[in-house]
Specification:
alpha+beta; two-stranded antiparallel sheet; 16% helix; elongated
Length: 143
């Protein structure tokens, strides 16, 4: 689904495609002398969030003289913002309508990829994999 998303104060460009998946933690115990298992619901696992998008240089971005190392129309500012997000070594806040349906307001970024797409110097694609994170305070309050 396409949704606007802000992570740690950075709006990701062009309404990226967001895939959300969740799983339950279930312990299965075989039935002695019988068929099947007894299922014990332990809780819910962290949600997995996959974000795929494309950054395109916005017309308001000013051109920089990079000495020919970076194409003039490359969205360098967006790359710098994504690099900054990647270097954060803690959970980060997020705002996204889709994630609010599942009470997700914090993420931990696990990995980031910049897939190669030949023939286009004025944009780049990115993919972020993250998991939901809930503060310890919220967990204690619920108990």
């Amino acid at each position: 689904m396409f949704f606007r998303i802000q992570i740690d104060g950075v709006w990701l460009p062009n309404e990226p495609l967001i895939t959300l998946s969740g799983a339950k933690v279930i312990v299965k115990t075989p039935i002695a002398g019988g068929n099947g298992t007894v299922k014990e619901m332990i809780g819910e696992d962290d949600y997995k969030i996959n974000i795929k998008g494309q950054a395109v240089r916005e017309s308001a971005e000013r051109f920089r003289d990079s000495g020919g190392l970076v194409p003039d129309d490359y969205p360098e500012e967006k790359m710098r913002e994504l690099a900054r997000l990647w270097k954060v070594n803690r959970d980060v806040s997020c705002q996204c309508q889709l994630l609010t349906y599942f009470n997700i307001s914090r993420l931990v970024i696990e990995d980031i990829t910049f897939p190669l797409v030949p023939g286009n110097s004025g944009s780049f694609y990115y993919e972020i994999n993250a998991v939901s994170d809930e503060s310890s305070v919220a967990k204690l309050i619920r108990k």
